[in-house]
Amino acid sequence: MLSPALILLSLFSGVALCKLYDNVADLPGLKYDFVIVGGGTAGNVVANRLTENPKIAVLVLEAGLSNEGVTSSQVPFLLNQLIPDSTYSWNYTTVPMPGLNGRSMPYFRAFFLGGCSAHNGMVYTRGAADDFNRYATLTGDKGWSWDRILPYFLKSEKWSPPADHHDTRGQFNPKVHGTKGPISVSLNGFPWSTFEQKVIQTTKELPHEFPFNLDMNSGQPLGVSWLQSTIGGGERSTSATGYLAPKFIRRPNLHVLLHAQVSKLVNATHKAGKPAFGGVQFRYGNSLFVAHASKEIILSAGPVGSPQILLNSGIGAHSTLSALGIPPVLDLPSVGKNASDHPSLFIMQWEVNSNETFASITGNATRFAQGLAQWNTSRTGPFVDSGVGTHIGFSRLPKHSSAFAVHADPSPGPGAPHLEMTFTPGGFGAVGANLMTIDIAVVSPVSRGSVTINSNDPFAPPLIDPGYLSSEFDVIALREGVAQAKQFVSAPVWSGYLGAMTTDIAGLSDLELETLIRSSTGSSFHLVGTAGMSARGARYGVVDPDLQVKGISGLSVIDASVVPIVPAAHTAAVTYAFAERGADLLKQRWSC
Ligand SMILES: Cc1cc2nc3c(=O)[nH]c(=O)nc-3n(C[C@H](O)[C@H](O)[C@H](O)COP(=O)(O)OP(=O)(O)OC[C@H]3O[C@@H](n4cnc5c(N)ncnc54)[C@H](O)[C@@H]3O)c2cc1C
Ligand SMILES: *[C@@H]1O[C@H](CO)[C@@H](O)[C@H](O)[C@H]1NC(C)=O
Ligand SMILES: *[C@@H]1O[C@H](CO)[C@@H](O)[C@H](O)[C@H]1NC(C)=O
Ligand SMILES: *[C@@H]1O[C@H](CO)[C@@H](O)[C@H](O)[C@H]1NC(C)=O
Ligand SMILES: *[C@@H]1O[C@H](CO)[C@@H](O)[C@H](O)[C@H]1NC(C)=O
Ligand SMILES: *[C@@H]1O[C@H](CO)[C@@H](O)[C@H](O)[C@H]1NC(C)=O
Ligand SMILES: *[C@@H]1O[C@H](CO)[C@@H](O)[C@H](O)[C@H]1NC(C)=O
Q1: Residue (of 348, 318, 295) closest to 478 by Cα position
Q2: 3-state class of 578 per DSSP?
Q3: How far apart are the first and last CA of the chain?
Q4: Where in this chain does the record put each Glucose-methanol-choline oxidoreductase N-terminal domain (predicted)?
Q5: pLDDT score, position 224
Q6: With bands split at pLDDT 50, 70 and 90, how would you rate the model's confidence at 1?
């Protein structure tokens, strides 16, 4: 039997061949089985999987612009132009953070189709098996354990040859990768051979401290591995290019509306003895509209947008809502709390005695133009890679670290790292200077932050507090990271290659180093946890292990916000895997 929404659709079939709508007036109607808020990393996964069933009608409401023709999103090496480009950004700034000496900073979130997958660093990391086994324990649902989530990682992934088709044997483990999914993943496709050889040689000279790891995405990330990125054929792969590829977006039961900013959930009712919402209010141009979902509303607005919409809708801490005059629907104090993210430190940067660095391109307008032209004609050359680096290393703090006197070990198990190092034949500094960088991030942070609102205007920007370095543990961990980076470059292979550090840290006391860390730490933009899952019946948490909002009927959150604790990984791959399972949970619930 056709659903009413589909009957409506069939009346209008043939009106528009492309189901990506720029104008609300062109939508055939506003009644659907499912309404998904946010066409980002997770939202497009859910939209794709639900519409595999032609009887299910799905509307995606995306606030931002189209990703079509955004060259800086397509060309991996243009990353540094894309991220600060305010056209494709929500233009958020964090609140001042005491842990960073009162600094606030830009907090980038993408404002176009594909969400952050379309403007992130493309680093493809899954985290440690221990991360997922902890999620399973925390939620009482074995479905979130590593063994049960791994198939979802593989389902979303299409392992692809690097753009230069070099011999990749010994650089990854094919057994842990998927080959049929929508998201392309590959090794770098342009060599920085001198630097790469030195990193690999370090794993031989210091094998105890920095062992080589064939593939950091096996669930056992400790060691140094070759970088993997969400890139295929020299182009960035995103949830928009993958999950909304032409063959999917053409489905008559899938509609995506751009420029539609959701304010809140409306048409409150009761279903099965619980509060429920029949509609989603959004702004298009200067007018408000309501889209209706007969089955379920899914928030996929990301770890900033989803808690904001919950709060705007009266779901959150009673005290916060009443103070703003927002009628409370459900007292759910964890909404927006428990935000966790990776603090990142870029001070470990050296001048190098080599011109085989990114500066050879970024510091010479002629070579930059040649590189872009080469990408344009053949999808080869230096522009096929993100410029993030060549390798990633994951390590643990020493057992005797003073960090453990401040806080019990926050890592989920012995196979999970505390620190991540990214090795890069380039850096930030004088244009044209030949540099190398070891970026250090704490991937087991103790600090927690929040996302909240301070206005009853649903379109006012939320307050974002990643809470960086609010725990001394994270500061000590970064200090240990500095020591580990120094140890890395103490391997004999670096002598004669390394020049001076661009920030002189020689002879700093622990206290002076701490001050430098607090004044220079930045963000990794890996925010999670703001609509975190917890066990059914737990006294905290926002969603149950099936991703439905606790105490509400017909409302799920499926995006990075449900991940309860930040994994030891850049968070896009995890978001894809969670969204794949989230879509399966919806299909089971609605037998569709
Ligand atoms: C600068 C940056 C670099 C990063 N680098 C990496 C990396 O290299 N590797 C990695 O794995 N991860 C990286 N990440 C993190 C990763 O990209 C994110 O964790 C992940 O993409 C989050 O997915 P999501 O679906 O939760 O949210 P998003 O992808 O942000 O999707 C949310 C979508 O909802 C839309 N939206 C929000 N509010 C509303 C509203 N009210 N109405 C309608 N639509 C709305 C947004 O416009 C967006 O399209 C990076 C993130 C950033 C910002
Ligand atoms: C961010 O700022 C730019 C430039 O002012 C603007 O074009 C864009 O629409 C802004 N984004 C949002 C979400 O307001
Ligand atoms: C749904 O809510 C909107 C906005 O509050 C309101 O205009 C509309 O009348 C409501 N529709 C129904 C069917 O209650
Ligand atoms: C944050 O999460 C932890 C579990 O990781 C939980 O114990 C705590 O209650 C949560 N806090 C809030 C405010 O939700
Ligand atoms: C690098 O240096 C070598 C030798 O000094 C020189 O021949 C070459 O042109 C330089 N390459 C670049 C990219 O500057
Ligand atoms: C810039 O690159 C071009 C092309 O390789 C080269 O001819 C020129 O000498 C370079 N300029 C500088 C200042 O290195
Ligand atoms: C790529 O080439 C096409 C024509 O072949 C041109 O129109 C376009 O501007 C080029 N893009 C870039 C980024 O160089």
Answers
A1: 348
A2: helix
A3: 13
A4: 302-316
A5: 99
A6: very low
* Closest atom of ligand 1 to CA, residue 107: 53
**Amino acid present at 61:** L
d(CA 314, CA 347): 43
Instruction: Say whether pLDDT at 7 is over 50.
Output: no
Cα 90 to ligand 2 centre (Å): 6
Report the C-alpha gap between 380 and 377 in whole angstroms.
8
Q: Which atom of ligand 6 is nearest to the CA of 367?
A: 2
Q: In 3D, which of 424, 426, 435, 466 has the Cα closest to residue 449? A: 466
Distance CA(523)–CA(255), nearest Å, equals 34
Least confident of 5-19, 124-138, 175-189, 261-275: 5-19
Amino acid, single-letter form, for residue 412: P
Give the number of the ligand closest to the Cα of residue 283.
Answer: 1
Q: Is 15 buried (19+), middle (13-18) or exposed (0-12) by CB count in 10 A? A: exposed
Asked if residue 401 has pLDDT above 80, the reply is yes
Ligand 3 mean position to 564 CA, how many Å? 34
Asked if residue 121 lies in contact with residue 569, where contact means CB atoms within 8 angstroms, the answer is no
The set of residues, in sequence order, having a beta carbon less than 8 Å from that of 141 and lying 6+ positions away, is 535, 545, 546
**CA dist., res. 380 & res. 376, Å (int):** 8
Query: 526: closest CA among 571, 559, 465, 565?
Result: 571
**H/E/C letters for each residue in 420-478?**
EEEEECCCCCCCCCCEEEEEEEECCCCCCEEEECCCCCCCCCCEEECCCCCCHHHHHHH
What confidence tier does 18 reach under pLDDT thresholds 50, 70, 90?
Answer: low
Q: Which two tokens stand for residue 592?
A: 């569709």
Query: Would you say residue 376 has pLDDT above 70?
Result: yes
Question: Residue-wise over 467-501: b if at least 16 C-beta within 10 A, else e?
Answer: bbbbbbbbbbbbbbbbebbeebbebebbeeebeeb
Per-residue pLDDT at 495 exceeds 80? yes
- Looking at residues 347-351, what average pLDDT do you find? 97
Mean pLDDT on 26-52: 98
The pLDDT, as a whole number, for residue 586 is 98
Q: What SS3 class is residue 72? A: helix
